[in-house]
Amino acid sequence: MEITYKTDVVPSPGQVIELYDSAKLPRPTHDAERIGRIYQNSNLIVSAWDGDKLVGVSRSITDWAWSCYLADLAIHEDYQKSGIGKKLIDITKEQVGEQTTILLLSVPTAMEYYPKIGFVKENRGFTILRTK
């Protein structure tokens, strides 16, 4: 398996929905228009491809100078535990540079994963949750 990583491609909503459903990432995959807006308004997308198949994605919103919110990290279920997630984050770090902090909110099932790849757990955050 040869995985290709890209920073210059925005996957289609259909590709993203298939990936998110496979990865069991809790996102509004029933709403292709909303998934499309999510991706059109993100400014750093790193994707992993096995040929023409989207097998992983790291989607972020960043100012390129201080902070980068890693909004989504998803790996297709058939490709998990093969280093793709770590590579996507490494490329994200390379893209935003050393002056930028990467932060994220983890789904409960990934809480053990992020410390293994270099993230530090923080207890200083706050959220206002969406209503829809």
From TrEMBL:
Domain of life: Bacteria
Segments forming domain N-acetyltransferase: 3-132
Annotated InterPro entries: Acetyltransferase_Butenolide, Acyl_CoA_acyltransferase, GNAT_dom
PROSITE patterns noted in UniProt: GNAT
A GO MF label: acyltransferase activity, transferring groups other than amino-acyl groups
UniProt entry keywords in alphabetical sequence: Transferase
Protein name per UniProt: Acetyltransferase (GNAT) domain-containing protein
Native organism: Dyadobacter psychrophilus
